[in-house]
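Here is a typical sample entry:
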Amino acid sequence: MTDISIIGLGAMGSALARAQLKAGRSITVWNRTSEKATPLVSAGATSAATVSEAISASPVTITCVKSHPQTKELLTAASKVLPEKTIIELSTGGAKDAEDLAQLIENAGGQWMVGIINAYPHMIGDDETVLSVVGTAEQWAAHGSIIKAMGGSSVHVGDEAGMLAALFAGLFTVRQGFMWGMIYGALAAKQAGIPLKTFSDLVPISMGMMKPYYDYFAATAPNATYDDPPATMRTYAAALEDVLASYEVLNARDELPRLFVEMAQKGMDAGLEDKALTAVIDVLANEN
């Protein structure tokens, strides 16, 4: 028996395996293309001939292949060896696929954890690297050290398999909000005849407000503490109206700033003009 098995030895899976070896754990590895196991075997890993053999070799198996459906296909074929085994799924996929995979493992008598790797392969094993993981609190207590060997700042998010797809979508939206903000900002600058180099050079200065914006969000949204904010929804709404007016005068595409205005107006219409802008989260959530 080994401590952990790893299924999937692409760049990421191999990095995960090396992190477990570095942490002093014995590992069994499997990959559809067996040659990818050779460097790890040279480093001390044991190579399995089949998925079933890999899962049987350890109490815990990490899966890191293309997607949840691919993992499901592999585990379906190996379902007879899943009882009393724990599968830590680190492949990608949507909420429904994650839930289907978790159900398959449960029905076969195994346990599951599902995670998102917020890093590139070369970052695996670093203290600052984060894997966001769902599973029961008991599983996190039992296997958190395995997760943290791959990312020292990893976190337990919850216990529902589909949670991570929503978390990824939310965090990706934050990043893409920044990217699309720069794109729409460039449109306004271009329409006004401002060189995009000038606009680009000034973006980092504007980014100096990112930390105060985050502090505003963190102080108000998590506990719905919307009273007495440093800037009210009314203040934000007025500024957003001014921005939209500038886009209109410039005849620049304005879908993004118009969305901002419309969302703030929903909060104003709900009577929240003296609350924090983040109070609009509850307004929008209640529309569903």
Notes: The radius of gyration is 24 Å. The mean pLDDT is 96.
